[in-house]
Amino acid sequence: MVKKQGSRFVCTNCGAVAAAWSGRCAVCGEWNTLQEEIVLDTSGASPSGGHVLKAESVKAVSSHDQKRLQSGVVEVDSVLGGGFVPGSVNLIAGPPGIGKSTLLLQLAQELAGKFKVLYVSGEESAHQIGIRAKRLGAESPNLHVATSTSSDDIAATIASGEHQLVIVDSIQTTSTGALSSASGTVSQITGSSQLLTAAAKKTATALVLVGHVTKEGSIAGPKVLEHLVDVVLQLEGDSYGGFKILRATKNRFGSITETGIFEMLDGGLKPVDNPSAALLAERQNSDGSVVLATIEGTRPLLVEIQALVNPTNYGYPKRAASGFDLNRLNLLVAVLERRTKLKLNDQDIYINVVGGIRISEPAADLAICMAIGSAAKGLQLSSNAVVFGEVGLSGEVRRVPYLEKRLTEAKKLGFEAAIAPNQKPAKPSLSIKSVSNVRDALNQFLKQ
Fold first, then answer.
1. Are residues 210 and 346 in the same domain?
2. Based on the structure, what is the number of domains in the chain?
């Protein structure tokens, strides 16, 4: 078990250490910067001395291969890089109601078929977890449930080595008795995370921490929490419907380019086999509607971009975007006004990415521009085509990566062509109608 030596106070401005709290740092002079931190002894050495480290060759260390804990849920295992690594610390975060607890309980059930799994909740009672587990069919005898907010007790349980996977929901509700501050504070989150991490590493137990997010969408608490863990997962999407996307923003054991796409049903989160077909199932071919061939991680995805352009009723035109960056939209509108004959300075412009998907890659620029042009003039695309390409400030259409994947996905769903930059794929699977600038794209491919 990890030993607690006590606590200390560290200045967040200059890093100075003090034995007692005071309103002002004695070193840098800043006010209210001293934060309480727990002092851990994870080496077994006395505070006044140390032991000589035992070093091993890289070849010897790399030969100690441990099998990953595979959940059987392909979407999750691919994001993790093949499953949970024994002794790893994984942090999953997302907005309230997105499905974090549901997904983890489903994973716990799948893993409980091969391993002993412990689900520790600091937010719900065991009875509440049991109700959700019954609905999800998570009633394996190897899946154990406990309720606690004491990180000391949880760390002791992990250190016993009885479970191969431990889920703590959530890290913001835990606290250690060595610190006097309330749970959820910077010092408690840091101290609790260090205790649980040290216990997990010592016993090679895979640890999953649930993290809250702020209203801006970032993980609540100190940034050191993200540095401390091995894997950071984000569950994104609309809490009230649409698809949920699981992506890794940090992964010491695999790629951060993979994504998992889920849909919330009565029986929990279910992987979506063909998200492109589901996203386009209810599409109506009208003005302002354009299909974008985008990339989520390394997965091609076809999504519908909708635009609505109306004369403004006020002196200042409104710009609104759902699933797309508003600043990027304002930039593209400026490019359209400057490089084409569209007059949008007295028009309200609304952009919607259907299905709750959030698009951030530059390849969506051309689709956004063509959707706006289509809605502004009441014209439709002249061909059954997907659109993608990055638009520069001069109105030029630039090349994008993963060209073959986009074309292959579009062909699977019956599209005949792609309106794209002047690129030549190694293995063309679809006709490419190349455009050099956004003005030519609007003139050539919009019709009554």
1. no
2. 3
